[in-house]
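task queued by scheduler; priority normal; single chain, no ligands, no partner chains; default sampling; output format set to structure tokens
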Amino acid sequence: MKKTSLLLLAGLLILSSGWGFSQNKKVVKKIIEIGTTDNQSMNHLDILTGRFGGRLIGSDAYDNAAEWAAYKFKEWGMDVIMDECGELAVGFNRGPWFGRMLSEDGMILHFATPSYTSGTHGVQRGHVLMEPKTQSEFNRMKGKLKGAWVLIGGKNSGWPIDYSPVADTRRAEIIEGNKEADENNRGLRRYNYMNPDNKKEMMPIKEEVGLFYKQMVEAGILGIIQSSSTPIRVLYDRKNVNNNYMTFETLPTIPDIKLDEHQYEVIKQMVIERRYFQLEFDIRNHFKMGPVKYHNVIGVIKGTEFPDEYVMMGGHLDAFDVATGGVDDGSGITPAMEAARLIMEAGGKPKRTILVCLWAGEEFGLLGSKHWVLSNEDKWPKIANYFNRDGGPTVANSLSVPESMYKDLEKICEPLNSINPDFPFTLKKATPRRIPTRGGGSDHAYFAMKGVPTMSFGTADPKGYDFNYGEIWHTERDTYDKSIPEYQEHTAVVTAVVVYGIAMLDHLLSREGMFIVD
């Protein structure tokens, strides 16, 4: 009797295992079917970029996008965690902007301003000056600075001029240090004028972009203008926001304009020639009182057998607001969202929990992902992998895994080459790598620092769409139309199949050979 019971139990286990494998294949087949006939990746991206736009943390656009993403996860039958991960002392919302040169050869101006910098007080019009480099220059033009736009030196790198107390102190020290050289050079200029054949070398003056920034603001300038290559890249007031110098009482008071370098040179030459013309700007940059909290949005598909083990995927929800974040990182989070939808729509019941992570504050220093990693130490050993996508809208076509994972992933990836012959998928064996010692790059960084696997899909542009990440990276061109629909849609299907497959294994993926052990 005992022997019969054991045989019956073994038979039931075999049948159960076969049923589970059959169900897994059925779900994967359904994922592929829906993903190739009713893929919603670009619809998600359209809403994210068209209805919300640039999604800087601290902005209404970010908060609205977070609420929408949570709503969609719930609509698909998922649980949602709104993970509060920080707050800013001040919020920022960007409105429209416009500028033009008023002269007989007038032109519409191509420019942008960094986030968390001042706008104009309505339409403001004024003459243009070059910034002073020495105290004597400042004294000579002090009266004329009122109501002027000032051209400053240097080349725009995306960051605004630092107006913090620390920066003011540094500039004051440079000005004081230049006084002796400036006074000496005034005499040398007279001497060299009188002795053209026996000129003496001038004493060096230490230069600093915006050296007289504080004094010029006090003198009543309308704003500063700096040359920028195109496409124009603007970031945010990092030093003042990150160091908490910026409060609602200490906001910047003049615009920091980054102007197309070609137009800048035209205007600069006109200033040098002392020609009369004016520039007119209308910049609607708005602040809101803090503290302004921001959240990670985490969609949860609960595991049926191993709910405390995890497969994770995602990217960052925030995006610089000079454009709409269509690529950085709309092209990362929308395939992850669609992968989750496909799993739910296909009736997937994963054995371990799937987390779809839309991180906050990546552009401010990986704030959201760092917060989650450091707050969930108990989960580190139980994460099979975190798939991060933050490299553009190219198609997922490969995966490199250590030897210990290869057989599992070989079975999981087998259906991928049946989806679209234009996008063949390759599974590769990877060599061990060192655990990084500092954060950087993207939201996978703090996971990797804690020894959590962070394999990401290799990508390519097999159809030759000539995508250039440098063109859109933090620039005005990071828009919906820069994403590539067929790549995005295929990537969503690939992600869903692989993530679901890992979640359906009867064991956690081995980490052997993932990292170098000293």
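post-processing summary
- The first strand starts at residue 79 and ends at 102.
- The radius of gyration is 29 Å.
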